[in-house]
Amino acid sequence: MANDSLLFLILASLLLSGFFTKTSSAFSIEEAAIDDLRLAFKQNQLTSRQLVEFYLKRIRRLNPLLRGVIEVNPDALFLADKADLERKVNTPGSSGGLHGIPILLKDNIATKDKLNTTAGSYALLGSVVPRDAGVVMKLRKAGAIILGKSSLSEWSHFRSNGAPSGFCGRSGQGKNPYVLSADPCGSSSGSGISVAANMAAVSLGTETDGSILCPSSYNSVVGIKPTVGLTSRAGVIPIIPRQDTVGPLCRTVSDAVYVLDAIAGFDSNDAATGEAAKYIPNGGYRQFLNPLGLKGKRLGIVRDPFYNFGNESHLHRTFEHHFQTLRRQGAVLVDNLQISHVDTITSEQSGETLAMLLEFKPAINKYLEQLVASPVRSLEAVIAFNKKFSRLEKTKEYGQDLFEEAEFLSRNITNIEATLKKLVSTFRKLSKNGLEKLIKKHRLDALVAPSFSAVSAVLAIGQYPGISVPAGYDSGGVPFGICFGGLKGSEPKLIEIAYGFETATKVRSPPTFKP
Fold first, then answer.
1. Catalytic residue check, 187
2. pTM of this prediction?
């Protein structure tokens, strides 16, 4: 407490002296990457306070329209002043990559502060988490400023099949900043919306199947879906730990890699991180930001089902152009490949949805039970809450069919463990005989596919990583991305490929806010 009082007095003194307001007016924060911000800090052109003030102003102006942010951290400016002071006195770690950089977190990632962690639902409003999520601990250690919580498709899009992407009870319908009537995609929609619209420097999302890759694609940002276990899921409201993963959504590959470097690694509260830690390279991931990273890379193209949009379409022409760019940059494209049983993987025939329904209840109950305080302590209680307060949440029309089905199955399948064991065995066989066999047979470094396609299912059941990079805009101005996916631990190759593509194409442009 004494240290906090001393820090407050120092900050107050610096505020009165005008330390935090002295900056060059020449520096533009909008669209600035982390490297730009760090240089501006170093050259005294910018302070973290000014950076946070800029984003708070953007949120006040744009969020009533876009609904990408649920709430902002009331301590954000204090944390910014603290970061400025640490750089001023050269505190150890104050020159690190994320020090003083504001980040938005998807509202299923726990923070032990004044922010709520609710998965976008009133059912968890006022709940108290026991500690920061594992990734948040790492972000704080890196000096990042927790700016607030981004919106999401409520309960990570696992409440109802009828709910649209980007809708949650607490903030309403998230809007695509490029074309307001377009799909922002879920479930990490708010994270994509917010960084695309410059309401934060960087953001974090989560993916079970497509929830980072798809909103990255539709909001023209870069998203990294890490190998499951590479980043901790401790303190993250779960869907299924077997597939859940936490990753960045940012405006550039470089920014996303800065965030990945900060959050990847072992966490004693998530056993999966122990196994995945072997994949983390010495020296981290920034060393793979190679503008010539495409040279010599072997990329596989699976036309069916990932490119079924017609040979005369704008999408077809754009991707064929990108293939030519990849070749010019030194990549070897292996075309017209097939993934064994890909139709089974990308449809309900694989049993992925059934597995989610069976695994969700024990996962969510475990999370709810460990809360210090909560209005609900079980899936059954969440269902009852939603029924009672549906008017308050304004979600009555969307229902909660997935919740109810998960609860029903938990009571009516006699041997859930045996059923799950069989399903997981099927996923492993499909992955081993599918993407793994394809990559090994053709000596591929990665698969390349549209980010909005069903490739996410292939990556999801295999626990594989993927990176989505902006690839263009359709005739109506709606963004789409290109996805590079690989086997477990292939992030270094994927980063080289993604950064090489981004450097060669520079597709992304700021939002247009078309109606």
1. yes
2. 0.94
